[in-house]
Design goal:
Layout: E1 2-5, H1 10-21, E2 29-32, H2 42-47, E3 55-58, E4 61-65, H3 67-78, H4 88-113, H5 122-148, H6 153-169, H7 179-188, H8 192-196
Parallel strand pairs: 1-2
Antiparallel strand pairs: 1-3, 3-4
The chain binds glutathione.
């Protein structure tokens, strides 16, 4: 199988962390592309209806797209246990919260990096950061219990989301006033799967 991805994409990083946590690095070739809505990579255009990454190319089967579809597929294929049935709804909800953080962060990143400076809209940026801050404040209260749980896909999504905030919005310092989340990420971010996929 091949994973069309970018080393900077947080959505692709979730899949890449899962692959490493499942010990299946040999099974998937990671193909790095550069793509954006303004210049869609041809491989991405050919395999994803709305031209986004990640995409999983499979022998003799349709490509799979959307990171959450790919992570569910690989988890089931390999029996990785990252969506444990006894905690499924909690794991899926944490995964969705982390995804919402990444969705808002990406909206902000595109606004700042792709839109011409004179067209950028500060209220829009602030509104999306407020969504992120609200989610992180809630997660700050839950971070202690996360440390006690075995790794799951919700935690992977959260670790990737926080890593993306460090990459794009370090100056906003999400760690300030969130010591428990900071401590959790210190531990989680040191996992080999996270270190190996750290965006450069
Ligand atoms: N919901 C999708 C989001 C994927 C996504 O937006 N990926 C970004 C890269 S981080 C992308 O391909 N952007 C290019 C574009 O929007 O054309 C997923 O989880 O896979």
């Amino acid at each position: 199988m091949k994973l069309i991805m970018s080393p900077l994409s947080p959505y692709a990083r979730k899949v890449r962390v899962l692959i490493r946590e499942a010990g299946q690095g040999e099974e998937i070739e990671e193909v790095a592309v550069s793509t954006s809505a303004l210049a869609t990579d041809p491989q991405v255009k050919a395999s994803h209806p709305t031209g986004r990454i990640p995409v999983l190319l499979r022998e003799g089967a349709r490509p799979l797209h959307d990171s959450r579809v790919i992570t569910r597929y690989l988890d089931e294929l390999w029996g990785a246990g990252l969506y444990p049935s006894d905690r499924l709804w909690e794991v899926l909800t944490l995964e969705a919260t982390a995804e919402g953080v990444v969705d808002s962060a990406l909206v902000m990143a595109y606004e700042m990096r792709l839109r011409p400076a004179e067209l950028q809209w500060q209220d829009w940026l602030d509104a999306h950061w407020a969504k992120i801050a609200n989610a992180l404040d809630q997660l700050e209260h839950e971070a202690g219990s996360l440390l006690a749980q075995p790794i799951d896909m919700g935690q992977i999504a959260l670790g990737v989301a926080l890593g993306y905030l460090d990459l794009r919005f370090a100056a906003r310092d999400w760690r300030r006033d969130r010591p428990h989340l900071d401590e959790w990420f210190d531990t989680f971010g040191a996992r080999a799967s996270m270190v190996a996929t750290r965006p450069a």
